[in-house]
Design brief:
This protein is mainly alpha-helical. Helix content is 76%, strand content 2%.
């Protein structure tokens, strides 16, 4: 639901704005909201992990294994978040550090793509990070269908049909031609998606400790 609302905010803003600056500012609002939500999810995830840890101490036969799983999954989420933060840092290095979102309207095609359209090093880093997260979490999420659905929805790197019915790569579809602030907002949303996946996984672990 949050992603749908976010998409609607962006769409409405882009359609109704009288000038380009307002459209860019709408992306900054989305990112700031996502950062706040990321903080809330992080706190929630740490609380859930502490609950599992306490249960593991009092009922080790039942909860020790899922506590180990929670730590392992948390490490994977942390790795992904750090990798995506490195991409955001590379973007700021490319465009210059600025809090003026009106100066972040240029696209990042020359940072994310080579001249022949293939992914450049920074673009590859995005694909590798998302692919690794998908691959390394699939087995853990097998018995936890809601968390698995969230992960597959947001971290499956496959070709996508555009509005003209043409199949294009994931990177092209989500990042090509977009202003820098939109790309940063998208990457922040991916971090949020990872935290959502972790949150649901921890809840399902607590509810179904026998798997």
């Amino acid at each position: 639901m949050k992603n749908i609302i976010t998409s609607l905010i962006i769409l409405i803003s882009l359609i109704s704005c009288k000038d380009h600056k307002e459209a860019l500012e709408s992306f900054s609002i989305v990112r700031e909201n996502q950062l706040l939500d990321n903080d809330t999810l992080t706190a929630s995830n740490l609380f859930l992990m502490s609950q599992i840890e306490n249960k593991a101490m009092t009922q080790p036969d039942k909860y020790a294994q899922i506590y180990s799983q929670s730590l392992e999954f948390h490490d994977k989420v942390t790795t992904l978040k750090n990798q995506l933060t490195e991409v955001i840092t590379a973007i700021h290095d490319h465009i210059g550090e600025t809090t003026d979102y009106s100066k972040m309207e240029d696209n990042l095609d020359n940072l994310l793509f080579n001249q022949d359209g293939t992914p450049a090093a920074t673009g590859e880093k995005i694909i590798e990070a998302l692919t690794d997260f998908n691959t390394t979490t699939q087995d853990q999420l097998f018995f936890y269908p809601v968390a698995e659905k969230i992960m597959k929805e947001h971290f499956t790197i496959a070709t996508i049909k555009n509005l003209k019915g043409k199949e294009i790569t994931y990177l092209d579809y989500h990042f090509k031609g977009y202003p820098a602030i939109a790309t940063i907002a998208k990457i922040t949303t991916l971090q949020n998606n990872a935290l959502q996946t972790e949150n649901q996984f921890l809840r399902e672990l607590i509810e179904n400790p026998e798997h």
